[in-house]
Amino acid sequence: MKLQAVQALLGTLTISLVGCASGPDFQPPAAPQHDYWGAPAAEVGTFRASGPDGATQRLAANLDIPARWWEQFRCKALDARVHAALTNSRTLAQAIARLQQALEEFNAQGGSVRNPSVDAGLSATR
């Protein structure tokens, strides 16, 4: 039994070494000559709209994005929605005030929530 295991191991080792020695000489591929890694830049004309203007949208990389970027779409409905969202959204000061209010309401309940309570009773029987 032990001899068969040794023979099987030697046979496997021999086949493995012969396979490595008889293969073609490996030539590593040349390194890419790019200044970037990732997807290549998009085509200049990326999308043709079917709207009334129908102009081809173009990719303009490395441009500064304005603070009110949505106005670049020239859409009154979008402008109105963003204006409503900014007007009705809570600011950081409002969020802090709401947290402070919740903390004060918690503290107003007294120590009954946070502190342990002790209860005792006394009775006499004959």
Would you write up a description of this structure?
This protein has 126 residues and is mainly alpha-helical. The chain has a domain at 74-109. It is 40% helix and 6% strand. The protein has 3 helices and 2 strands. The protein has helices spanning 2-22, 76-88, 92-108, and strands spanning 45-48, 56-58. It has a two-stranded antiparallel ribbon. The model has no long low-confidence stretch (mean pLDDT 79).
Task: Tell me the layout of helices and strands.
Layout: H1 2-22, E1 45-48, E2 56-58, H2 76-88, H3 92-108
Antiparallel strand pairs: 1-2
What's the quick description here?
The chain is mainly alpha-helical and 126 residues long. The chain is built from 3 helices and 2 strands, in the order H-E-E-H-H. It has a two-stranded antiparallel sheet with strand order 1-2.
Mean pLDDT: 79
Helical content class: 40-55%
| Global geometry | flat
Spans of at least 5 consecutive residues with low confidence: none
Q: Could you spell the SSE succession in H and E letters? A: HEEHH
Number of helices: 3
For the secondary structure, the number of strands is 2
Structural class by SSE content:
mainly alpha
Strand content: 5-15%
What is the alpha-carbon Rg in Å? 38 Å
Side by side, the strands of the main sheet go 1-2
Biggest β-sheet description:
2 strands, antiparallel
Straight-line distance between termini:
91 Å
